[in-house]
């Protein structure tokens, strides 16, 4: 019984089942793998939303602490024009736009 995965059944509408099947075929993945990936991605999205909310709360409720954070961030990342992930620019002004995860740097 060791590492054998257990499975269960969930109820979804026929429309969602058909959509999962269509996406599964397009992606070349099983329906189960597609659903598992979607749940993992949703969890990441929720985690980043909480981070953005906490950052916004800190910015509003602790301006001095926020200024220290921004100064340290800029010390590590350099001025905004030199940052590795320019698509994150504006994050401070719009934390709800936080991406799911940073893009990997091209090392080559």
TrEMBL record:
Organism: Microbispora siamensis
Location of the region described as Disordered in the Swiss-Prot/TrEMBL record: 89-108
Protein name per its UniProtKB record: Ribbon-helix-helix protein, CopG family
Domain of life: Bacteria
């Amino acid at each position: 019984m060791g590492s054998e995965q257990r499975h269960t059944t969930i109820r979804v509408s026929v429309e969602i089942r058909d959509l999962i099947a269509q996406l599964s075929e397009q992606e070349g993945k099983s329906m189960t793998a597609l659903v598992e990936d979607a749940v993992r991605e949703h969890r990441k999205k929720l985690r980043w939303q909480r981070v953005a909310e906490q950052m916004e709360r800190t910015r509003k409720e602790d301006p001095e602490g926020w200024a220290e954070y921004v100064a340290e961030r800029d010390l590590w990342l350099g001025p905004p024009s030199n940052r590795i992930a320019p698509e994150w620019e504006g994050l401070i002004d719009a934390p709800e736009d936080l991406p799911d995860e940073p893009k990997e740097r091209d090392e080559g």
